[in-house]
Write a structure and sequence with these properties.
The structure holds two protein chains of two kinds.
Chain A lengths: L1 H11 L1 H26 L7 H19 L2 H25 L4 H24 L19 H4 L4 H5 L4 H19 L1 H11 L1 H6 L4 H27 L11 H12 L3 H21 L6 H38 L1
Helix pairs in contact in A: 2-8, 2-9, 2-11, 2-12, 2-13, 3-4, 3-5, 3-11, 3-12, 4-5, 4-11, 8-9, 8-13, 9-11, 12-13, 12-14, 13-14
Chain B lengths: L6 H7 L5 H28 L3 H14 L1 H26 L7 H18 L6 H28 L3 H24 L30 H18 L1 H11 L1 H6 L4 H27 L12 H10 L7 H21 L7 H13 L1 H4 L1 H16 L1
The chains are: A mainly alpha, B mainly alpha.
Chain lengths: 317, 367
């Protein structure tokens, strides 16, 4: 009972929801990218690598140029390059995209540490670099509304952008030619090709979109969520996005719920540490919840499909 | 048949009768050599003292006897990981759950090594069996998720790796921790738990022989038993396998249990061979190495030792070099990643075969 009271207290506090938004934003962005790729029929498992490179390059360039926007642009470019490498190998050299993703993540995990060490002499953290932080926004009207203001105002720019991204990706997938092509290529590449759609190019563009989004998320991790690059700071968020993408069911709006699942547990973990649960178990919680969500959604989807098939056979007979 | 055997392969064909078996080996060697070259180039760019760094990287492991033993010791966990990956990869399942099985195997072995007094000789063996069983059960989880709910086994295994890592360190911290130590370490293992050293005063332990025996066992298992045949059939064509009347799910689960068992034993061997207490501060993660070994060996256990030797060698070389120079150890991931990228690319791997098919088609057209 005591625990339930505690939980209710946490869930009612604006502080909790503020953290939820903050930890959901990067996952949301990466999940949207994973959704677009999956729609186009190519699994982008290199998102983890994209996040890491964006986070590192963003910090380094913003420290060099003393300009946070140049850092952001460079970070996004780096992340997109990772996605393009996956495209190059998977689409031009006929490689298994899953293996390419695995290889790119391996290179990125070590490569970012290697570059960090070469530049700063430190393998763990970039604190010796004077890097910039993306701006936080206070929204004038909303700021003074009780509760709501405490949650929605004062967040980082990227948190707001992640919500914009949901709308943009929703429109991209449902209302644009490219979106239709992506869906067509993912559903049946042969049919799409016979309609004159360049399958490889469409997949490449889908990868580009995911690279851009992951770049934004990666820069947020090192220039907003925290103010440094630390080795392995992505903490598996790229992989979580690949699981969340399934939970999202291939829609932009679904991505919100899927990434909220992770964000809410992640934020809850910080509060649960206060009541003396072992921190190791709490750290495992977001990943465990993601797996459970993943299973529940596939289960529901299979059920629905089965029911539809049954209905079809009934009509036929 | 002999008429289209030309040039390079014709020459080699004098030594090897079966070209189809030779080609993969040549491609693996080329992939390794090319990736190594990329690594050397990276050192040349990054180091202030490139000549010495490259020398240390390439020759370091054979310069000192200590390093040679280190290579052999390093081969042990890599071989375990490679064998575990070979089995699931034969069934065309790609899971990285080996990290969990290895880590939890080590945690289980630590528990057995600390809490359960047994006679020497028997003690590590019991630990291996218990750890293997734990590993096998964990190894089956991604397969269950895939078979029952079509969850991508790679993604779910990576998620599970996080969960089991935190779970395992929880066990160490709350049940086995030595409170007198400032750093995180378990209580010391009982004396009877330690594996014998093959050569006194070196790191080389009996686990090396266990790994060697396991290579033979897995080779026999995959290529000389009914179960191995079924696994390979599931990998080649699951539908055909289902039509022949055996349970595909059963075969896949069995393969994952054996694979996880090997991972668990690997963790136990590391504990009893290398350490006096559980002192891992993070997951050593041999999953990537396992993937690379399995790919280099083309899923065939026979070639696992050679591939493991190669990986252990460059790892020790990189370690040796980074300790004496200015290049970080992590550059090795570039070499490892390159190997996967090259061997994952069908266009590169099938280059010779495609060329040959084209040449043959041209000849037939002329005729």
């Amino acid at each position: 009972m005591e625990f339930l009271d505690f939980l209710a207290g946490v869930l009612a506090s604006p502080n909790y929801w503020f953290i939820v938004l903050r930890s959901t934003a990067p996952i949301l962005l990466v999940t949207l990218g994973a959704v677009v790729c999956e729609k186009a029929g190519i699994s982008n498992l290199s998102l983890e690598g994209s996040l890491l490179w964006a986070a590192l390059v963003g910090v380094v360039v913003s420290a060099w140029t003393q300009n946070v926007w140049l850092g952001l642009a460079a970070g996004i470019l780096a992340s997109t390059l990772v996605a393009w490498t996956l495209g190059l190998f998977a689409l031009r050299l006929d490689a298994n995209p899953v293996l390419v993703g695995v290889a790119l993540n391996l290179v990125s995990t070590g490569g970012t540490v290697f570059v960090l060490h070469a530049l700063t002499g430190d393998k763990g953290i970039s604190s010796s670099l004077d890097s910039k932080v993306l701006p936080f926004w206070t929204i004038p009207g909303v700021k003074d509304v009780p509760w709501v203001g405490q949650v929605f105002s004062g967040q980082n720019l990227v948190v707001y952008l992640s919500l914009v991204a949901v709308v943009v990706i929703g429109i991209l997938l449902n209302k644009t030619v490219l979106g239709r092509r992506i869906t067509a290529v993912g559903a049946n590449p042969e049919a799409a090709r016979s309609m004159g759609i360049d399958v490889a190019l469409t997949k490449f563009l889908a990868l580009t979109v995911s690279g851009l989004l992951a770049g934004l998320a990666g820069c947020f991790l090192s220039m907003g969520y925290t103010s440094n690059f630390t080795s392995g700071l992505s903490a598996g968020r790229g992989y979580v996005a690949n699981a969340a993408q399934v939970v999202a069911g291939g829609t932009a709006v679904g991505s919100i719920f899927a990434s909220l699942l992770f964000g809410m547990t992640d934020a809850l973990a910080t509060f649960l540490q206060n009541i003396g649960l072992p921190p190791e178990l709490i750290q495992a919680l977001p990943y465990a919840v993601t797996i459970v969500g993943f299973i529940v959604v596939t289960l529901l989807r299979d059920r629905r499909e089965l029911a539809r098939k049954r209905a079809l056979t009934r009509v036929a007979s | 048949m002999a008429d289209h055997r030309r040039g390079f392969f014709r020459t080699l064909g004098m030594f090897f009768t079966d070209r189809d078996r030779l080609e993969p080996a040549v491609i693996s060697v080329l992939a390794g050599a090319f990736s190594l070259l990329a690594g050397v180039l990276l050192i040349a760019v990054a180091s202030k003292n490139p000549g010495e760094s490259i020398w240390n990287f390439l020759v370091g492991p054979v310069l000192r006897t200590y390093n040679l033993y280190y290579v052999m010791v390093m081969m042990v966990p890599i071989t375990f990981a490679g064998l575990a990956l070979c089995i699931v990869y034969q069934a065309r399942y790609l899971t990285l759950i080996i990290d969990s099985t290895f880590y939890m195997g080590a945690v289980t072995a630590a528990a057995v090594g600390i809490l359960w007094p047994l006679p020497p000789g028997l003690h590590p063996v019991v630990a291996m069996v218990v750890s293997g069983t734990v590993g096998g059960l964990i190894g089956m989880i991604p397969a269950v998720l895939k078979l029952k709910w079509r969850a991508n086994e790679l993604v779910s295994s990576i998620m599970l790796n996080y969960v089991f890592y935190f779970l395992g360190s929880c066990v160490i911290i709350y049940f086995l921790r030595d409170r007198n130590q400032t750093i995180l370490a378990s209580l010391p293992f009982l004396e009877s738990f330690h594996l014998a050293k093959l050569i006194p005063n070196t790191q080389l332990h009996a686990g090396f022989l266990i790994a060697a025996a396991l290579v033979v066992a897995v080779a026999v298992y995959l290529y000389r038993t009914k179960w191995g045949y079924q696994i390979r059939m599931v990998g080649a064509n699951p539908r055909f396998a289902a039509y022949t009347g055996f349970s595909v799910a059963g075969v896949v689960l069995g393969a994952h249990f054996v694979s996880g068992f090997i991972g668990g034993v690997g963790g136990a061997v590391e504990m009893s061979g290398m350490y006096k207490a559980f002192i891992w501060q993070m997951d050593p993660s041999y999953a990537w190495d396992g993937v690379i070994v399995a790919m280099l060996a083309r899923r065939n256990p026979k070639f696992v030792p050679v591939s493991a030797l190669f990986l252990a060698y460059i790892r020790v070389g990189a370690d040796f070099m980074s300790r004496r120079g200015d290049v970080a150890f992590e550059f090795i991931t570039l070499v490892q990643g390159m190997i996967i990228l090259i061997l994952a690319s069908d266009t590169i791997v099938n280059y010779f075969r495609t060329k040959r098919a084209q040449a043959q088609a041209l000849r037939q057209e002329k005729a």
